[in-house]
Each structure stands twice: as structure tokens, then as C-alpha cells.
Amino acid sequence: MPLFDSPQRPVGSGLLAIAIAMGMASISSQVSAQHITASGSSTVAPLVAEIGKRFEQRHPGVRVDVQSGGSSRGMSDARQGLVQIGLVSRALKADEADLTAVPIAMDGVSVILHRSNTVPALSDAQIKGIYTGAIRNWKAMGGPDRPITVVNKAEGRSTLELFLHHFQLRNRDIRAQVVIGENQQGIKTVAGNPGAIAYVSIGTAEYEAGQGTPIRLLPMGGVPATVAQVQAGTFPLSRPLNLVVKGQPSATTRKFLDFAQSRDVHDLVKAQFFVPLAR
Amino acid sequence: MTSSRLSSSSRWHADRWWPLPLGVASALVGSLALFIVTFLAVQAWPVLSHLGWADLVGDHAWYPLDGEFGMGSLLLATVLVSLGALLLAAPLGLGSAVFMHFVAPSGARRAMRWILGLLAGTPSVVFGLWGLTVLVPWLAAHHPPGTSLLSAALVLALMVLPTVALTAASALQAVPHSLRLASDALGFSLSRHVVSVALPAARAGIVSGMVLALARALGETMAVLMVAGNVAQWPSSVLDPVRVLTANIALEMAYATGPHRAALFASGVVLATLVLALALLAARLEPARHHA
């Protein structure tokens, strides 16, 4: 409906004459280029929405529309051309080379325990053992005699994908006692259960721990779970937050992609507890 | 005579138009319900056409990303959690209905009604939050993980309690006063009157209230999602975590594509079938009301 976009783009008679001369096809592509649509990862969507607001301020007449619905949906929407930009909170797989990924930030996934849990650290093998049900009591790791409550994520979440990928597990190998959706649900579950173990986004976990929520972020492979370590690229359980596009993006979309990678949005990235990329 | 014939015929004329809008309204409601069920079935078709009912509700696991869509454990969990809630809520609800109708002074009766109304009006997510931050940690301290069939049934019981109590109270109120007089004439004690006369006479109303409560329990999502643990498995005790059909849809729909999405619509079809079966059961119970 190109002509109904007039509040942002007054269609003067001169422009209309040119448009008619150029044919309707070109005006429709020209106007829709001023409307950037994005959908996908619920981790990335709030960040891109903020970046979009700032981009709209700097480029009057451009609308940035962001919807969340998971990385899988971001991939498929971008692939089917339903949106110009897909939001994906993981690195692209080898068989996804039909899409181009533009990284805008990093996110780390941290394993969290209740603050009162005395186990100082867990090896990858121990975490694997806990999540597959081979280790069922904290006593085995020198902790108190208390059964372990394994908290897993629901299928389709990219946090789960990242976790499974890192530990070389399949979801059917995991013996969970609680399955959660949102990060907050995982944090509340661990805060209310001294025997629980979960994994959530590091930014969210670091913030909640700072607010006094009784959780503790476990170091991974000797690297402390902090936003700073994720930024340095040294934290093992971390993931890039990507914008994905199919084919050659329009000029406006290209401008937005460059803007989303620029220093101008680092404050927005940090405000969402993500880690800006070193460029 | 003429005038009376005229007025009756004009009354008849005046009434003639109104079945039309009423008919349109009911046709709209009926077709909307059919539309939603058809929509569910169409969306679920990619999975339903490949798998039989045996694959869906049989002894398979739920690993949607691996193409395994066994909902048997989810269906069982849904039924167990709802029946458990009703089992907990029924004696409490019935007890408070009898208390309100026969025992309580009018002030206490009004207070009871007000409190039950408050309970009925509390949003389910509030019950869920309470369950997650109070009930589950308390249960976890004794029997980890705390998120379980039991906690889900307990939270649901709280939510359906007002339905059971208020419908039972109305059913008791509808019992003819003459029965009370007859009981008095026979010298029945109050407890004898309640157990042998009033409750049997109000049976149909009480039972349909319970069916209503069960339907609400089957459809509840948020509160159960927060306290049930959501592990798709066959429970071996009431302290095991379970996943119900509604929670299954809410947990995974936002991130589901392709066959996974179709399978979630199939869980919707299974749930709708369950509620339909319950509605048919309720309809079979209905004639009993006329005999009572």
C-alpha cells in the first residue's frame, strides 16, 4: 500500500508524475525500502528494537519494525522473504550459507547455581554427567548431601541449542527435573531451590546476581562467567547475536546493518547486558 | 372478543421478527466454534496425516525437533493434574458450600462469598507466581525439585475451589424449602438432613459445577506452566515433574516452525477432544437434574 505511507513520505504531484513515468513496480520497491522489517530471536529483538528507534531518529521517514519469535523463526522468515532481517542468537550452521550473517554483539550463557551451593566449579565432564543423570547428588562434587535439580530449556530455544552444542549432547540424553521457557523463570527456579543447576544468558544472570538474587555464576574452564570475559572472546559458552539477510540487501537495509555494527549503538548493547563486538 | 383476537394476533406479529437475530447470533457462535476446531485440525494436519492416533498418544516420547511427537505422557499428566485438583478442591468446596448454606450466620456467609469471589477473580499468573516463589521452594526443601504433579494440582485446586463452592452453594439454595420442612417434621438432625436429603437433592447441580471446574483445570496454562516442571515424561509419583498439553503449547509455540508447529496444533486438537468428551459427559449427566 505505498500511497498510504504519506504521513512519512508526502507524495507530491511531481513525485507522482515521476512515479507513473517509472512505473508502479519501482515506486512500490522504493517505498518499501523505507520500511525495514525484522523478526526472530527474543534475545536479539529488544536490542534491535532500540537500535531501530535510534536509526529512525537519524533517518526521518524510515520505519523499523521488530517482532520476536525465536531464532528458528528469524531464519525461516528471512529465508522466505517475509522480513528483510532475521534475528538469530547463534552462529550460522554450515548448511545455512544461503543467508548472510552480520554480527552485532556477543551473548554468553552461564551455568548458575544457588548462592548457598559450596561447589566452587564444575568441569565440562561433570556438567555433562549432571545433565545426563549420571551424577545426581552434590556430594559427588564435594558439596552437601543434596539431590541435584536439573533445569533445562524448552525445545526450540537457542540457549538450549548453544548448550547442547557446547557439551556435545542431544536433548534426549538430558534428564531434567524442570523445563523452563524464559531466562527469568530459570533464575527464579534456582533462587528458590538450593540444589538446582540451570543455564541462562550471562547478561541477565550477572544483572540478577548484582541485584541480590541468591544465584551464583559458575566459571567455565577456569574462565569466570562475566560480561567482560565474553567481550574478550575468552568465555567458552558464548554466542554471537546476528542479523541475517538473504541475498543483496536494499540500500536502506544496508545502512541499517552498518549502523547496528557501529560504535553509535554500543551503549544500547551494554544497556541490554550484551557485549559489544571489538572492531 | 374482536379486540382480544386483534391484540393476540398483533402480539404474534410483533414476535415474528425476533427469532431471526437470535438465530443469526447462535449461527455465528456455532460457526465460530466450528471454525476454530477446523483451523486447529488444518494446522495440525501435516502431523496428523503422517501419524496415527496410536503414535500420538501411545508410548512415544516428545522430541519434536527429532520428529517424535508422543503426547501420551502429556495427556496423562493433563488428566492427572486436573483430576488431582478436583479431588483436593471437591471436599473443601462442598464443605464451604454446606457451611455457607446451613451453618454460617449471614455476616460470615457474605464474607465467604466475597472471599470466594476474590479467589475466582485472581488472575492465574498470580497463582503461578505464588506457586513458583512460595509453594515450590517449600516442597523442594522436602522433596526436590518441588516442581511437580502435586504442586500443579495444589495450585489448580486453589483456582477451581471457588467454582466448586459457589456452584454447590447455588445448587443447595435451589433445593425446595419443603424438603427442609419435611426433614424437620421427621425429626432429622441438621447433619442428617444435609447428608441424606439436601446433598442428594442438589446432586445434579453439584456435579455439573465439578465438571465445570474440571474443564477450567484442563484448560489452565500459565499457573501450571510455572509450577509443574514441564518435563515431558510418564510420572511415577506425584512428586515427579510433568508437562500438561496447554503448557506444552505455551512453552514451545513461540519458537516452533514446520512439523514442530503442526505437532503443537495437534496437542491443541488432543486437548479440544478431551474437553469435548467432558462436555458430552456433562450433557449425559444433565437429565439427572430433572429427576432430582
Q: If strands are numbered along the chain, what order do they take across the biggest sheet of chain B?
A: 1-2
Low-confidence stretches of chain A: 1-32
- Helical content of chain B stands at over 70%
Dominant shape of chain B: globular
Classify the oligomer.
Answer: heterodimer
> What's the main sheet of chain A like?
10 strands, mixed
CATH fold label of the domain at 76-243 in chain B: MetI-like fold
CATH architecture of the largest domain in chain A: 3-Layer(aba) Sandwich
Q: Can you say what the CATH homologous superfamily of the domain at 76-243 in chain B is?
A: MetI-like
Number of strands of chain A: 10
Domain count of chain A? 2
Shape annotation of chain A: elongated
Your description of this structure?
- The complex is a heterodimer of chains A (279) and B (292).
- With 279 residues, chain A is an alpha/beta fold.
- In chain A, 36% of the residues lie in helices and 22% in strands.
- Chain A is built from eleven helices and ten strands.
- Chain A has helices at residues 13-22, 24-32, 45-58, 71-80, 124-131, 158-167, 183-191, 202-210, 227-232, 251-260, 266-271, and strands at residues 35-40, 63-68, 85-88, 99-114, 149-153, 178-180, 196-201, 215-217, 238-246, 275-276.
- In chain A, α3 (45-58) links the parallel β1 and β2 (63-68).
- Chain A starts with 12 loop residues before the first helix and ends with a strand.
- With 292 residues, chain B is an all-alpha fold.
- Chain B has a domain at 76-243: MetI-like (MetI-like fold), CATH 1.10.3720.
- Chain B has 14 helices and two strands; from the N terminus they run αααββααααααααααα.
- Chain B has a two-stranded antiparallel sheet with strand order 1-2.
- Chains A and B meet through α4, β6 and α7 of A and α6 and α12 of B.
